[in-house]
Amino acid sequence: MASQTNNPFDFTSLFTGYDPQAFIRQMQGGFNAYQLPNFDSGAFLESQRKNMEALVSANQAAFAGTQELFKCQSEMLQQAMTDATEAARGLASSDNPQDLAEKQAKLLQSAVEKALANSAELTELVKSSQEAVAKQVNERFLASIQEIKDAISKQG
To answer: Where are the domains positioned within the chain?
Structure first.
């Protein structure tokens, strides 16, 4: 991420000017201007700060998962091109039609098996990435609910 590339999927530039702490300070200034009864603005702001941190962390995890997926797909494409080149050379060297048909059948079987293995690998990669993101979001959601319950019990 540190190097500048022409990667159309690199959205990190969108977050360069974003400062979650400045957002929290702005909200805190607004709450301090209006003292609401039975409302702990400090606890609310701390909760929102944690929410923003969780959101940033989840987005980073999703981005990392997407990058890994693209890297894996790129490697698979490179390997497929290498395999296709080798297959074309092998088929071109066959003079016997029966030998050519056997080589084609083997190549087809190998290609289908490789495609299924690649599909399973990509599926697992996406699944694990999404599970990690969902776990982060769910944990923060549950913690946020507990923070609301705690704030209500303090006020009541």
So the answer is: 40-155
